[in-house]
Amino acid sequence: MMPIEIRLLAYAVVLGFVHIMAASLAGLKARGGLAWAAGNRETQPAVTGAAARLERASKNFFETFPLFAALVLAAAAIDRHNTAVVLGAHLYVWARLAYLPIYGLGLPVVRTPVWGVAMVGIGFVFVGLFTKIGPFVR
How far, in Å, CA of 126 to CA of 71, rounded? Predict the structure, then answer.
């Protein structure tokens, strides 16, 4: 049976794909459509509005995802399946899922705390590497 934190890691990979597609599709029209996309992209015109926000959200996701993935994989490698790891994985994935539309819609007051929840999730997974607490201990 697959541990929930590994399943959440797989869901985060899907979310990464969604980030790429959302940012790409939102900026496509502003940059010249399919003709630009099919070209060699010598220039990359700037985008504004929701397209620019989705690009920044995608960049932000890919700044944090490697940390999350490395910690979850390390926890799995040493069979550290505990409350902190599971809770941290949930916090990260659900906060990052909420972050994309929040940032895309331009809700700055909400965006920062949601980002913070994802960072706390990474912290929980890190702490879980060094502890054997909770009902999920093997």
Answer: 6
Asked whether the beta carbons of 81 and 136 are under 8 A apart, the reply is yes
- Does the pTM surpass 0.85? The reply is yes
What does the pLDDT read at residue 135?
61
Residue 49 token pair = 């509005």
Give the model confidence (pLDDT) of 12-39 as tens digits.
999 999 999 999 999 888 888 887 778 8
The structural architecture, per CATH, of the domain 4-129 is Up-down Bundle (1.20)
Sequence spans of domains, the chain: 4-129
What DSSP state is assigned to residue 130? T
CB neighbour list of residue 49: distance below 8 Å, 6 or more residues apart: none
